[in-house]
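Extended Data, panel c. Modelled sequence:
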Amino acid sequence: MVILKKMNKKILAALALFFVCSAFIIMIVNLLRFAQPQPHSVEKLSVLKSGGSAVLRAEYFTHADAEPFVQKHSVKYIIPGDIKLILEQRKNVRQDLPNFFDDEDAETLAKKIADAMSVEELLAQCFMFGWAGQNPNERVGAWVESGLGNLKIFGWNTADSKKLSQAILQLQTRALHSRFSIPLFVATDQEGGRVRHVKGLTTETPSALACGASALPRDAFFSGYYIGCELAAIGINLNFAPTVDLYSNLNSTVIASRSFGDNPHSAARLSTAFSNGLLAAGVLSTAKHFPGHGDTGLDSHGRLPRIDISREVFYSRELEPFRAQIENNVPFIMSGHLNFPQFMKPNEPATFSYDMITRMLRDELGFSGLIVTDDMMMLSALNYAGNFSRAVTLALQAGNNIIESSSTPSLQDLVWRENISLMKLDVKFFNIVKSSAERIIKKKLQYFKSESHVEILPKPVELHNKFPIAGADNFFQSFAGRSVTLLHLNNQSDAKNTFQKISRDEKVLLVGDYQNLFRLAKNFFKNADTVWTDDVFSRAYNYDKIIFCVYDAHSAEVLQSLQVRFPKKHYIIISVLSPVFLKGLHAETALAVYSYSDFSFKAALACLCGDFVPQGILPLANGAFGDVVHKRN
């Protein structure tokens, strides 16, 4: 018996030691997991299993501002082996020319290269072009060999991620074979949410407005970080995100869910965290669209928006997110084709305004990074300038450094010949172009020779081993859960009765236009039937409870008509993208999820099942369409 007691004590001691060691190992793993650069925020998370998916619920939140991200530079830059091989293979290049990979400080080397460039090479460094289709054509290849400084990746290039990565590899290789071996900035628009130009293997994620709803810099940071990791794997080093425009005008369709909300301070804090996430992944970020595209219902792709606000409102509202980005050392700012008639010349887009780009953005706000235009093929720019060639001239004279165009001209086009001629005739214009080219080269030297940058030459053969990015899916699912917002619509007098849990066994009709919503619903409601929005009237009479997905004005109108025809049905609304369309509707429960990604739909469906309590905060103060039920302390 004594021996048995001693053995039991030894076993208990061993078990105690095992649990202590296990707890220590788990603590170390968690510390390592969150050791990546991030804003300091605290969350207590619990995992909730629902329909085969896991949704993380935030029990409490600590709001903290994001820390500025500082680009790190190597003490001694070592040329990668694949680039060194290309440099050794170059032929017919003068040995006395400076080279991008020479061992000199960025400022000195940038000046040497700019001084040695021809007028054609200087101007080419200031252009950003792309190509049509999956594979690059010879026209863009000729531009790269002539010294083109920058590439733009559009949605029509991105169906096959491996082919896109191969195209970037091919064009970067041609750039390294050019006279000065200057790599390309390769840009795209990957904001999260509905603006996702690079498709293929990349993740469809919740939107910036979802970041506004979670209100956590950590969520904005890791959104930028994981989006950046995906772009970096493909070879894209510059992202035209975040959108820091405020959602001031609820009629806006071009900004809407791309915004972090209508509060300047919140948008500044969250967009800065998103930028830091991109930078931590090695991808350069861009604050857009300066001076602010949020307070208009017009789309600058077509007509020129005229934002009729006072200078005082503009300084206290529109500029706050840009100031925060500048203080955080954002590397790029995109200028927008926008007019503010109370303090700008009539009908002049900000892109072409010396007062806005140089005097305000450069001199007054102190921005020292690169200024890139919005697409110069937009009608709001071309209608003012008259033609593409004149638009390029005006944009460079205003102080922009890089001219983006979704259309790639030939090397014999007027935009090339006329601006080259002007450089040769006008010393002032020559110096403007040369100064921009030198600034671009300096930034490239600082970036590509830093410790945190995207590889110049991507490795397409390794792409499928890099996707999906480790940890991304778990993060985006938990983030989507934190952003779910319970809305109290105007005609509901009792806010306490606006959330009704739905049984998984209940017979429901799910109405919408998203195939992924229909697919996912089967995992949550086994007796759910589905119908397209426009076909709902022939099916609704058989169901007592209807879950309706509202995503635009048309879907809201259909639901309103349905509620008139069947006023006694029990309605539940899932609002995707922007919740502004819910005005005039009624529902027992209305949830806003801000995107049509799988993550957002899973979060909405799990919430309706009662798996967690919605914690999101409506990121729009204007309560014309409804108020928030839940407010976080």
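The mean pLDDT is 87. This feature is highlighted in the accompanying rendering.
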